[in-house]
DNA sequence: CTGTTAGCGCTTTCAG
DNA sequence: CTGAAAGCGCTAACAG
């Protein structure tokens, strides 16, 4: 079942069928109808690889995420994807639609590079890299190199939630500012002994949030001990749990714990409860991201809201070239403090 | 940068380079090395569309999910994808690797069909359909038709978590059995007035779980009222919240609420708390799926565990033809009751 | 507005 | 074991 078959049935040339299907060229209404009917009758579906080869571009858009099981990435990826299908009508066989494909790197630099190669091989129309980047120098150079190679071969490269690189449009997240305001909130409540559960050391997101926290602590003259009250782990629940136990070991008199994200914060809460400590009466807890479950946690989690859906949608539009690039190719996504019940003034008795 | 460039540099024919790269044909070790070096020096990356066209197959594997922001699907999709990259070595440019791409249908039948067409157009190597199917007759017929067309053109079709169809290998989930055991657990605790918050009416998952629940109620002679104490909504938190308010309106003396999944259960808990009801003292709550956050909820949520990661991984292997098909093309994934703190005997005073 | 004519870059018989 | 040659199905000038 090929274009030629359709052409024969519609009694036109293959070129005409191609023009009807891609819709980017004037075709007489009568012929167009005839072609469309033939397409229907034959249940013809364009051969993607063939057209990608001939046109030297494909309709694939790759979305790289660090962990698709984490709603943080699920929300962003879903939003990117929702921008692609907007015009998807009922008629099958037609094309012009982009196929956004989500690739799960698991946070591994090698897999990230591998997917980039895979997408380059597919001649993807665009690539969206989401979430914190790994800061290892070699890897950063490798990614930057791949990105410019992609860009120079016509693939649009969009970054969402990581630092800018050349040849890419970037949406950075206000991790530093948000983290800083969050810790300031705790400071304002009167906390002085604040533990921090950070993510993996080499991630940019981890570093930015930690810097924001430290900036707030420094400004309050609390450099001392801040270092000692920081524990690194993964961006998951069990790391939060373990880190909390470790923090408690280091300082029994802690009155607050800030987690690098909401998922970690969940683990922090679990550990605190298992230790017989009440939230926020004994220890205040705060997270970051404001994932859907955070507002429902008990007590509701104080956190920093990042408009993930909007950011993902915008990244998708940027990837399609449907939105003008921000000045300088970089735009920052603002974050917002969500003060809820998991944070309160420290107990006077402590 | 094409095969021909590499061939010229390695002083061999294009055919030889192709053979080295696909590795499915004997080539002298010395030439192979020469070719590989040329590939490296030129940073050559195979043109996917071109090779897909020539070979009439691509290395794309599509994974359709109803809602990628929901960890239920994130976990399955991540697991499918993790089976693909297993052999991904460091060398770029090489191929043979599959690219698993996740497509988010948002639960819309049209988008599901559209993605199927898109994947058919890409001549995908396999397609994995996950999660409950929409039971509208027309749509089921359309999906079945698409599936057999895909199958007949060499695309493997795998179903994960939905009822079997012809031309597809299927992994069904034990939704009915799990739901039944869950309600039995509540019955055993002494509950009689049990509310049920179901998912969207037309989903197979919704129906199966509801049937399991009703079967348990019937067996206990509790048909009466079961119908009245069932409310349908979406598989999300706010539906659970609203449904709970509605249930309470219908029967103030409810002692337990079963939710069609954990996310809904979260909303149920929130509503109950907002109404000043304690869990499980006043009302017991149960969910389904055992997502990661469920064990951490307060109180820990009683639910039915589905081995999502294993199921997804198996679906991935099936899609790659790396695992023998189960007898009859259908295998059932067992579920397991996880009795936790959110369920307890009803208050004697009620 | 429509047809003709070349390829796009790779795979794969078929010879050697 | 390697090369030559014939497409895979579609698109994009270029005429008409």
Automatic annotation (TrEMBL), chains A, B:
The keyword Flavoprotein does not apply. This is LacI family transcriptional regulator. InterPro entries: HTH_LacI, LacI/GalR-like_sensor, Lambda_DNA-bd_dom_sf, Peripla_BP_I. Residues 1-55 form the HTH lacI-type domain. Keywords: DNA-binding, Transcription, Transcription regulation. SUPFAM superfamilies: lambda repressor-like DNA-binding domains, Periplasmic binding protein-like I. Pfam families: LacI, Peripla_BP_3. The keyword Endoplasmic reticulum does not apply. The lineage of its organism: Bacteria, Bacillati, Actinomycetota, Actinomycetes, Kitasatosporales. GO terms for molecular function: DNA-binding transcription factor activity; transcription cis-regulatory region binding.
């Amino acid at each position: 079942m090929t274009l030629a078959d359709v052409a024969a049935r519609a009694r036109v040339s293959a070129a005409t069928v191609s023009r009807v299907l891609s819709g980017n060229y004037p075709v007489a209404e009568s012929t167009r109808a005839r072609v469309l009917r033939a397409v229907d009758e034959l249940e013809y579906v364009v051969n993607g690889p063939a057209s990608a080869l001939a046109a030297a571009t494909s309709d694939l858009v790759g979305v790289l995420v660090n962990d698709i099981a984490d709603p943080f990435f699920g929300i962003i990826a879903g939003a990117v994807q929702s921008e692609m299908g907007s015009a998807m009508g009922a008629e099958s066989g037609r094309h012009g639609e982009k196929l956004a494909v989500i690739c799960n790197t698991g946070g591994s630099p090698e897999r990230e590079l591998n997917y980039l190669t895979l997408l380059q091989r597919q001649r993807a129309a665009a690539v969206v890299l989401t979430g914190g980047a790994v800061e290892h120098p070699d890897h950063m150079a490798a990614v930057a190199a791949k990105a410019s190679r992609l860009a120079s071969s016509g693939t649009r490269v969009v970054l969402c939630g990581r630092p800018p690189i050349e040849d890419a449009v970037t949406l950075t997240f206000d991790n530093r500012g948000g983290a800083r305001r969050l810790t300031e909130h705790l400071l304002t409540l009167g906390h002085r002994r604040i533990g921090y559960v950070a993510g993996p050391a080499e991630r940019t997101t981890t570093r930015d949030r930690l810097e924001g926290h430290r900036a707030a602590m420094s400004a309050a003259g609390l450099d001392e001990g801040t270092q000692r009250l920081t524990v690194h782990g993964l961006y998951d629940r069990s790391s939060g749990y373990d880190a909390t136990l470790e923090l408690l070991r280091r300082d029994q008199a802690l009155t607050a714990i800030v987690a690098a994200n909401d998922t970690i914060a969940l683990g922090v809460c679990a550990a605190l409860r298992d230790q017989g400590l009440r939230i926020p009466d004994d220890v205040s807890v705060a997270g970051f991201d404001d994932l859907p479950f955070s507002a429902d946690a008990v007590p509701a989690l104080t956190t920093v809201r990042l408009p993930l859906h909007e950011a993902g949608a915008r990244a998708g539009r940027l990837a399609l070239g449907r939105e003008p690039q921000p000045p300088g190719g970089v735009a920052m996504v603002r974050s917002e403090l969500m003060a809820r019940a998991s944070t309160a003034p420290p107990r006077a008795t402590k």
